[in-house]
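User: Fold this; tokens only.

Assistant: Input:
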Amino acid sequence: MIGITQALAPALAEKGITINAVAPGFIETQMTAAIPLATREVGRRLNSLLQGGQPVDVAETIAYFANPASNAITGNVIRVCGQAMMGA
């Protein structure tokens, strides 16, 4: 998705369209709650904040990209990951 986002940005910009991507890290959801506790703890500790993100963190990032205030941003990837040590 990162490559597609960056590759499409110039062509879409010619049409007045912006394209960006959000790359979530370990997010605390019902799905991740089903992961064994020890594995969840590893996911939480693999970032600078030492905690999992919340779905609202991802949602607010997406909402920003949907807002006209972000119309000068295109071809970018925002990592919502607490500065994860691995991933996107």
